[in-house]
């Protein structure tokens, strides 16, 4: 193995002879056929891959974001951080030397020259990923970098310092927080944070002595971003976790804190303001006003060219914040502790942009009873209607007792939907499969979904029936070609003709593989990683879904001032030539995907 491994390639050229021998002895060899998955998305990496022969594509969200050839290595990001969801696929027959994580860390520690290159390569990798993402975006909101915002200098105190010392350090440095060092971070130590609010609560509300050490009182699960990351990412992270500051790093070292007000000054949009209004809402009426602001946010982001996937991420977080806060305002504490509020359908998949019909439910802990349950659920539905979320025609809402039940009854329903499927049962199963937890105890939903996936069997008749609705609506093709000029003014229901066949077809394939993912694009790429979908087809499907969703958003914004998705119709005469050609290609692809589904699930028999 030592003869085969090329130690002349940086950074391995910096190793001493004895270190090279140890590395060579620890190496393994990976052999990958063309289109084989080397490292799937979210899979933890326990080694560094060094390409000896062949070519590797790095993919994120279905796009090839990097290509690794001979002597290139990956994936430092997976080795040393949580990173983002990426996968590595052999673009041709490939051989990789595998460097185990322990020997890599050992050599980096004992050989500073080697370790410095490894650390720099990791920092460069993070920066390159951030640059790559910004290059795909043209809107100013997504181009701004964290380094463009003012960063508050970090103020450190040791874990043994007292609360009084921390307060003095904040006052002396005019800071609203301190970072707490608990040991040497380079030797397994950790860094936490203590804010002014924490100090107030600890001393005033809890009565902690001011000479108490800060080490045991600090919070060590820091939310961090690289200095070259996007401010848009910081915005989403603050929104998701309801925090007002993030710790910013550069080459792994803390360089400052990004405060909410400074982020807003750069972005100059009101998305975080919406989140603040939600967090501070004292009444449902306060929430209603915050909900209306989301429509303006969507219009602004869409109007500046921000990709629909980014808008969906942000709107999903804001919508779920509103649902969570409304439930917290209405539900007594014991109901919150003994239930799980879920959203389903497009909201559960994280794909809702404008306000569509409510699809929500409540899972109760077995044995728990709430005397005011019907009043709480009825008020929840009524307030969402007031906020602009129309009631579900099929009454899939918490105000319907069929969707507010104990876990055991949900399991009974799942059993019925699987083993005695009629049309309604299949629809309910599809909707529930997309469910996401919003408030309360998420473990209740996890147990119900675990039961669902555990009850599925290799039953061809079941999956044939489940997949059949994907073919229920016609996908027109006569709008184009020779008949196009004559039928140019005809409108197409973009949801029925294009979006639903993709969503449900992908959902059926995902359910067949017992997949836990709920988002359609994520499902597409996991299906590709598992070999269910050809990678070319997966890429085309993901692109088509994005394009059709963008057209649907535009149609909804054009047809509604309230932000409610009332119009799924696309009028071909309103499209420019490029959009019209792409629309035509997307519909053709949907027809091809339907043919694949028909063959896979035996739908023509």
UniProtKB/TrEMBL annotation:
PANTHER family: CBS DOMAIN-CONTAINING PROTEIN (PTHR43080:SF2), CBS DOMAIN-CONTAINING PROTEIN CBSX3, MITOCHONDRIAL (PTHR43080). It holds the Pfam family DUF294. This is Nucleotidyltransferase substrate binding domain-containing protein. InterPro entries: CBS_dom, CBS_dom_sf, cNMP-bd_dom, cNMP-bd_dom_sf, Diverse_CBS-Domain, DUF294_put_nucleoTrafse_sb-bd, GlnD_Uridyltrans_N, RmlC-like_jellyroll. Residues 150-210, 217-273 form the CBS domain. The keyword DNA-binding does not apply. Residues 11-87 form the Cyclic nucleotide-binding domain. The keyword Transit peptide does not apply. Gene3D superfamilies: CBS-domain (3.10.580.10), Jelly Rolls (2.60.120.10). Keywords: CBS domain.
């Amino acid at each position: 193995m030592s003869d085969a491994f090329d130690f002349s390639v940086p950074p391995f050229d910096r190793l001493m002879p004895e270190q090279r021998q140890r590395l060579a002895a620890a190496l393994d060899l990976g052999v990958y056929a063309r289109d084989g998955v080397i490292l799937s998305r979210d899979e933890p990496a326990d080694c560094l891959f060094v390409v000896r022969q062949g070519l590797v594509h790095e993919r994120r969200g279905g796009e090839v974001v990097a290509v690794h050839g001979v002597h290139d290595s990956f994936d430092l990001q997976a080795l040393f951080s949580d990173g983002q969801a990426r996968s590595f696929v052999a673009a041709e027959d490939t051989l990789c030397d595998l460097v185990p994580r322990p020997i890599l860390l050992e050599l980096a520690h004992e050989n500073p020259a080697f370790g410095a290159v490894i650390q720099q390569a990791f920092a460069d990798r993070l920066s390159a990923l951030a640059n790559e993402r910004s290059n795909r975006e043209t809107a100013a909101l997504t181009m701004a970098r964290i380094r463009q915002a003012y960063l508050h200098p970090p103020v450190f105190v040791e874990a043994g310092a007292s609360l009084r010392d921390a307060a003095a350090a904040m006052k002396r440095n005019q800071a609203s927080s301190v970072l707490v060092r608990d040991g040497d971070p380079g030797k397994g130590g950790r860094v936490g944070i203590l804010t002014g609010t924490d100090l107030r609560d600890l001393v005033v509300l809890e009565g902690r002595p001011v000479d108490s050490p800060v080490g045991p009182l600090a919070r060590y699960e820091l939310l961090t971003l690289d200095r070259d990351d996007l401010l848009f990412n910081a915005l989403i992270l603050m929104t998701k976790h309801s925090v007002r500051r993030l710790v910013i790093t550069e080459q792994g070292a803390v360089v400052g804190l990004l405060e909410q007000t400074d982020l807003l000054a750069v972005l100059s949009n009101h998305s975080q303001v919406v989140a603040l209004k939600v967090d501070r809402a004292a009444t449902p009426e306060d929430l209603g006003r915050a909900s209306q602001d989301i429509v303006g946010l969507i219009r602004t982001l869409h109007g500046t060219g921000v990709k629909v996937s980014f808008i969906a991420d942000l709107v999903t977080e804001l919508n779920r914040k509103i649902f969570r806060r409304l439930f917290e305002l209405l539900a007594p504490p014991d109901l919150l502790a003994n239930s799980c509020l879920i959203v389903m359908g497009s909201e559960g998949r994280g794909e809702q942009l404008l306000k569509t019909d409510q699809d929500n439910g409540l899972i109760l802990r077995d044995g728990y009873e709430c005397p005011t349950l019907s009043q709480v659920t009825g008020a929840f539905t009524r307030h969402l209607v007031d906020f602009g979320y129309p009631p579900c025609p099929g009454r899939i809402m918490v105000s319907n007792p069929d969707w507010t039940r104990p876990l055991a009854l949900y399991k009974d329903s799942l059993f019925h939907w699987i083993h005695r499927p009629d049309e309604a049962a299949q629809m309910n199963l599809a909707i529930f499969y997309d469910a996401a937890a919003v408030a309360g105890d998420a473990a209740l939903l996890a147990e119900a979904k675990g039961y669902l996936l555990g009850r599925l069997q290799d039953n061809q008749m079941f999956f044939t029936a489940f997949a059949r609705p994907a073919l229920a609506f016609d996908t027109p093709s006569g709008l184009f070609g020779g008949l196009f000029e004559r039928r140019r003014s005809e409108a197409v229901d973009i949801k029925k003709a294009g979006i639903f066949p993709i969503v449900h077809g992908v959902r059926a394939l995902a359910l067949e593989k017992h997949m836990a993912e709920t988002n359609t694009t994520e499902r597409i790429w996991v299906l590709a990683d598992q070999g269910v979908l050809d990678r070319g087809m997966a890429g085309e499907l993901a692109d088509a879904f994005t394009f059709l969703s963008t057209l649907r958003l535009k149609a909804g914004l054009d047809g509604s001032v309230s932000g409610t998705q009332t119009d799924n119709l696309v009028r071909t005469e309103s499209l420019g030539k490029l959009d019209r050609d792409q629309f035509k290609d997307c519909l053709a692809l949907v027809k091809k995907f339907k043919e694949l589904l028909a063959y896979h699930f035996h739908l023509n028999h």
